[in-house]
Write a structure and sequence with these properties.
Blueprint lengths: L6 H9 L4 H25 L1 H8 L4 H25 L8 H23 L3 H4 L1 H13 L6 H25 L14 H32 L10 H18 L3 E8 L2 H26 L6 E4 L4 E6 L3 H17 L15 E8 L6 H17 L5 E2 L4
Parallel strand pairs: 4-5
Antiparallel strand pairs: 1-3, 1-4, 2-3
Helix pairs in contact: 2-4, 3-4, 4-5, 5-7, 5-8, 7-8, 7-9, 8-9
C-alpha cells in the first residue's frame, strides 16, 4: 500500500518554484492558453449580439460589444507575447490577472447599465471558472492560487457593492433580486474550482517529477538533464561563466553486482549518488543517465572541477562499501571525463560527446581516474 502524502509535502510541491521541465511545459501551456483565449474572445463577440436579438436595450448591447472588441484586441496582444518562448516570466500572472479583471469589468458594466444585471449574468460569471481552470495548463500551483484568489476577492467586492446599492425591490433579469446567500454560493464555487484545479496541477507536477527523476536514486534523469542544460548554457554565456560537465562511470560494476547481489548493487548506486550529490554547490546538478553512469554539472572552470571530482574519487576508493549480511566490503571506483562550456562545445550533445571521449580514454589507460584533456 502507498503511504499517504503529508500535507506539508503537497504544499511544498504545489507552491514551490517549478523546475526546468515544469517551466518548459508551463511556457508551452501559456501559448496554448493564449490561443484558447483568442478563440474564446471571438465567441464573446456573439454574446452582446445574442442579447440584442433577445430584446436587450441598445445601451447594454453597445457596452457589451465595445467590451468584446477590447477583449479581442488584448487577446491578440497576449498571444503575440506568448509566442516569445519563456522570454517574459511575468506573463502567466499578467494574463491570469487580465482574464479575471476583464470578467469583473464586464460584470461592472452590466451592473452600471441595469441594477442587479452584473450579478445575474451567469454566462459572464462562468469566465471566472474558465480562467481558473486554464491555469492548470501552466503547471504552476502558485499561479492557480493567485488567479483563484483574485477571482474570489474581485467578485466578493463587486457583490458587496452591488448588493449595497441595488434596491431590494428592483428585480434582476431573471425575475428575482440577487441575494447575499446566492452570491456566497458563487464564491464557494470559485473556491472549489481553485481547489480542484490545484489538485490537477499537483497531480501533473508529481507525474512530471517522477518522469524527470531516476526511480532508484531520486536524482534527475537524462530527460531532465537535456531540458536543463541549454538554459544553463544561456545563463553562463550571458554571465561570462564556465560550465563543466563531468561524465562518471563506475568501474567494473558488473563484478560489484556479482559480489554483493542485486539489492547490494542498488544500495551501492544510491551510495555513490548520495556522495556525488554532496559535492554539489548552489545551482549545480547531478543526473543519472544510465545503469552506472552519472553526469555532474558544475559551475566552475574545468581545472577546479577536476580537483573536486578527483578528490571525491580518492575518498570513495579509500572507504570500502559495506555489503549486507556480514559479507566482505567492496571497493567502489569510477572513471570520469570532463568537458567545459564553451571551450569544448556549445551544445549539450557536443559537450557530452567530448566528456565521453575522455571517459573512454580514462578506461583505456587503467580506469579509476579523471581526465579533463584530450590525449
Amino acid at each position: 500500500m502507498h503511504e499517504p502524502v503529508p500535507l506539508k509535502r503537497v504544499l511544498a510541491t504545489l507552491f514551490g518554484r517549478p523546475d526546468e521541465v515544469m517551466l518548459e511545459l508551463g511556457a508551452g501551456g501559456e501559448l496554448l492558453v493564449a490561443k484558447v483565449r483568442a478563440l474564446l474572445s471571438l465567441l464573446v463577440l456573439v454574446l452582446p449580439l445574442a442579447a440584442a436579438f433577445e430584446g436587450a436595450d441598445t445601451t447594454r448591447t453597445l457596452l457589451g460589444l465595445g467590451a468584446a472588441v477590447f477583449v479581442n484586441i488584448m487577446a491578440q496582444v497576449w498571444l503575440a507575447l506568448a509566442r516569445n518562448h519563456r522570454r517574459h516570466h511575468w506573463l502567466p500572472y499578467a494574463t491570469g490577472a487580465w482574464d479575471i479583471t476583464a470578467t469583473t469589468g464586464v460584470l461592472v458594466m452590466l451592473s452600471l447599465g441595469e441594477p442587479g444585471a452584473g450579478l445575474d449574468s451567469l454566462v459572464v460569471w462562468c469566465f471566472y471558472l474558465f480562467a481558473i481552470a486554464l491555469t492548470a495548463l501552466r503547471s504552476d500551483g502558485r499561479l492557480t492560487a493567485f488567479v483563484g484568489g483574485l477571482a474570489i476577492v474581485q467578485y466578493a467586492v463587486l457583490a458587496c457593492v452591488v448588493l449595497a446599492f441595488t434596491p431590494a425591490a428592483v428585480p434582476a433579469i431573471n425575475g428575482s433580486a440577487p441575494s447575499l446567500a446566492g452570491q456566497g454560493q458563487r464564491l464557494l464555487l470559485l473556491a472549489m474550482m481553485t481547489l480542484l484545479t490545484s489538485t490537477v496541477v499537483y497531480r501533473m507536477q508529481r507525474l512530471i517529477e517522477l518522469s524527470g527523476r531516476d526511480g532508484l536514486t531520486g536524482v534527475p534523469n537524462r530527460a531532465w538533464l537535456l531540458q536543463r542544460l541549454p538554459r544553463m548554457f544561456e545563463a553562463a554565456r550571458r554571465d561570462g561563466r564556465t560550465v563543466t560537465i563531468g561524465l562518471v562511470d563506475v568501474d567494473h560494476f558488473r563484478r560489484v553486482y556479482e559480489q554483493i547481489g542485486h539489492l547490494g548493487g542498488d544500495r551501492a548506486i544510491r551510495h555513490i549518488a548520495e556522495h556525488l550529490g554532496g559535492m554539489l554547490g548552489e545551482d549545480e546538478h547531478l543526473a543519472r543517465i544510465g545503469g552506472q553512469e552519472f553526469v555532474l554539472v558544475l559551475l566552475c572552470p574545468i581545472g577546479s572541477a577536476w580537483e573536486r571530482i578527483d578528490r571525491f574519487r580518492r575518498s570513495l576508493a579509500a572507504q570500502p562499501f559495506p555489503a549486507e549480511r556480514g559479507g566482505e566490503p567492496v571497493t567502489l571506483a569510477f572513471s570520469a571525463g570532463l568537458a567545459a562550456f564553451p571551450q569544448d562545445g556549445a551544445t549539450a550533445s557536443a559537450l557530452l560527446g567530448s566528456a565521453d571521449r575522455r571517459l573512454q580514454e580514462a578506461k583505456r589507460t587503467g580506469r579509476n581516474r579523471v581526465i579533463a584533456r584530450d590525449a
